[in-house]
Write a structure and sequence with these properties.
The complex is a heterodimer. By secondary structure, chain A is an all-alpha fold. Helix content of chain A is 77%, strand content 0%. Chain A contains 14 helices and no strands. The longest helix of chain A has 32 residues, at 3-34. Chain A starts with a helix and ends with a helix. Chain B is an all-alpha fold. Chain B has 16 helices and no strands. Chain B has helices spanning 3-6, 35-41, 45-76, 91-98, 100-130, 135-145, 152-163, 168-175, 191-217, 221-229, 234-245, 247-263, 266-271, 283-293, 297-314, 316-325. The model of chain B is unreliable at 1-40 (pLDDT under 50). Classes of the chains: A mainly alpha, B mainly alpha. At the A-B interface, helix 1, helix 3, helix 4, helix 5 and helix 6 of A face helix 3, helix 5, helix 6, helix 7 and helix 9 of B. Chain B: Keywords: Cell membrane, Membrane, Transmembrane, Transmembrane helix, Transport. Chain B: The chain crosses the membrane at residues 49-72, 110-130, 142-162, 194-216, 249-272, 292-319. Chain B: Residues 23-33 have a biased composition (Pro residues).
Chain lengths: 274, 328
């Protein structure tokens, strides 16, 4: 008769332990990012002491020039995601709604890009970027981020397009609407929710990118934010942990806010990958 | 979600279907063309140009910036790294057996794959199943999901603070009297790789929890009630009712973790740069190291190709479903 309460106790204890285990690094991050850098004595704090968070963030901002790099990442994440989703939606429209031959070929041609590890693109991109004057430029990074985003966005938009009712399109075709008009007037408005989900997903992955940032850019006014954070981490000993942790919080704020305000979209973008 | 079992007949589409991978064009080459197919062959040029205009930008971008570089890497991997770079057949691939750093890198990659598949899967499933709608258990869930919103670089910053020699973990161990356990976690292999895998699990479990929660919501409560009425214990209910119905979600979680584990770069690069002495490199890091720091582009290309082969083999879980959906 005691088995049920015993099971519940066991379950709750495990859950509390796991939650604690997960919360401790987060707690340490927040607490130590708040310790004023000058008062940090060399060993980690477990309880809040003073409030230097904003000052630490400002120091990180100055030392690693987080300002320009955050502005860059915002530019890259927004423009490349928008471009990628527009192109992907158009391609998905053609691949699903329009009468196209060799659908499978087109699908794999675009989708294959998302299966390959990024390492396989790096050096040829680096060399040809150097040749074409795209190395260390904003347009170069926007291009590569858009290209990386297209295959997966296409996959999402295509799967979504398949769930849309065909009758609307067929009726509009009967009335003599052009494909172009159909795309903008009917397909895009119908696909809006999937487009937002794909945008959130791509925005976060571009914002969090480090690999292309350190490979295809070097200047402080071009490089994206995670490259700047990696540099800040390299100065861990000289600037002190509170400043580095404060910088980590600062650069994570946009994605954390986006994640919790748009969790619904995150979940739906994950579901769309099925 | 086996598409083959529920696939509608060619050309028809049952109203109200929501299966996102239901086939649109289930006529494979080789079979006699259906009437619809034959009609398409006579597409007017104008139609073809329009559909080409919709497809071309995406295809060109992917072709120029992804597929062409991929081909170039494949080709480059066959040439050696001497000053007069000559054709070397598979010499670069032989490095996987002779070069100590690469052998270690393969070992680490295998450890990463095992760790990134097992930990988020087991922990994510456990946490999703153990939490219910009560407020405190939702808070527990929040604790686990939050790190998922951080980038790999930010996770590295947090865990460097915990794991560095005068970091929080060693401090904690010394406080509770376990001085003997305190050591340079990131300085000695294999503890260095193990703790980084744990750090990765700290971040990656959140998404597994979310996915499993979505899967659990999809289980009809009647099946669980029926099982209880038949006298099934909680464990039997979990084993024989819940787990089988979570299969599609499980495949997604495993596929995602596998791909992420194989591609993990940011965390390692920011925490250890693959060091000390190249001991913590995975293939993804080794490729960067060889290509850009050691100036061995041939070796780097070979590593990238091997990584691609492994990633493709691992993605087979996904790919098979995709092929299924395409009706081939």
């Amino acid at each position: 008769m005691r088995t049920v309460p015993l099971g519940r106790i066991l379950r709750n204890t495990t859950l509390i332990l796991l939650a604690l285990l997960w919360a401790v690094p987060t707690w340490l991050l927040v607490v130590n990012a708040m310790v004023p850098a000058a008062e940090y004595g060399g060993s980690p704090h477990w309880w809040p002491q003073g409030f230097g968070l904003l000052d630490n963030m400002r120091q990180a901002w100055d030392r690693a020039q987080l300002g320009p790099s955050m502005a860059n990442s915002l530019l890259y994440a927004v423009t490349s995601s928008l471009v990628a989703i527009l192109l992907a939606t158009g391609a998905a429209f053609a691949a699903v709604v329009m009468p196209v031959r060799r659908r499978t070929l087109w699908f794999w041609l675009i989708y294959s890009g998302t299966l390959l590890p990024l390492q396989v693109f790096l050096r040829p991109l680096f060399l040809s970027y150097a040749d074409f004057g795209l190395y260390d430029t904003q347009i170069g990074l926007v291009l590569v981020y858009a290209a990386i985003a297209v295959p997966f966005a296409f996959f999402i938009m295509r799967n979504y397009a398949m769930t849309l009712p065909r009758e609307v399109v067929e009726a509009a075709r009967m009335d003599g609407a052009s494909w172009w008009r159909l795309f903008w007037r009917i397909h895009v408005p119908l696909s809006r929710s999937a487009m937002v989900a794909a945008f959130v997903f791509q925005f976060v992955s571009v914002w969090n990118d480090l690999l292309f940032g350190i490979t295809l850019s070097t200047s402080r006014n071009i490089r994206p934010v995670m490259a700047a954070l990696a540099e800040l981490q390299g100065t861990y000993v000289s600037v002190g942990p509170p400043v580095v942790l404060g910088g980590a919080i600062l650069v994570s704020l946009p994605t954390v806010v986006l994640f919790f305000s748009a969790q619904r979209f995150f979940v739906s973008s994950l579901k769309l990958t099925r | 979600m086996s598409a083959s079992a529920t696939r509608p007949a060619a050309g028809t589409r049952p109203a109200g279907t929501t299966d996102p991978v239901s086939p649109k064009d289930p006529t494979p080459a080789g079979r006699p063309p259906s009437p619809r197919r034959r009609a398409r062959r006579g597409l007017p040029l104008r139609e073809r140009l329009t559909s080409g205009a919709f497809l071309a930008p995406a295809v060109l971008l992917v072709g120029a910036l992804l597929l062409a570089p991929f081909a170039a890497t494949l080709w480059r991997s066959l040439f050696n790294d001497h000053r007069a770079s000559g054709f070397a057949q598979l010499d670069n691939y032989r490095l996987f057996f002779t070069n100590e750093a690469l052998v270690r890198s393969v070992e680490n990659t295998l450890m990463w794959v095992a760790g990134t598949v097992l930990l988020p899967f087991v922990l994510g499933l456990a946490i999703a199943c153990m939490t219910d709608a009560t407020r405190w258990s939702r808070f527990a869930r929040l604790c686990v999901v939050t790190p998922y919103a951080l980038s790999g670089a930010a996770v590295a910053v947090v865990w460097n603070f915990v794991l560095t020699s005068d970091g929080a973990l060693n401090q904690l161990l010394k406080t509770v009297g376990l001085d003997s356990l305190a050591h340079g976690w990131l300085l000695e292999w294999p503890s260095s790789t193990v703790v980084m895998i744990l750090a990765n699990a700290w971040q990656a479990t959140g998404v597994a929890v979310i996915l499993f929660l979505v899967g659990l919501q999809g289980i009809p409560p009647e099946t669980l009630e029926a099982a209880s009425l038949d006298g099934a214990s909680p464990w039997q209910r979990f084993r024989h009712v819940v787990l089988p119905q979570l299969r599609p979600v499980s495949i997604i979680v495993i596929g995602m973790s596998l791909a992420n584990g194989l591609k993990s770069f940011d965390l390692i690069w920011v925490l250890t740069q693959g060091g000390p002495g190249r001991a913590t490199e995975t293939l993804a890091v080794s490729m960067y190291q060889e290509t850009f720091l050691l100036q061995h582009p041939g070796a780097g290309a070979a590593i990238a190709v091997v990584l691609t082969v492994i990633v493709l083999a691992a993605s087979w879980l996904y790919l098979r479903r995709q092929l299924d959906a395409k009706g081939e």
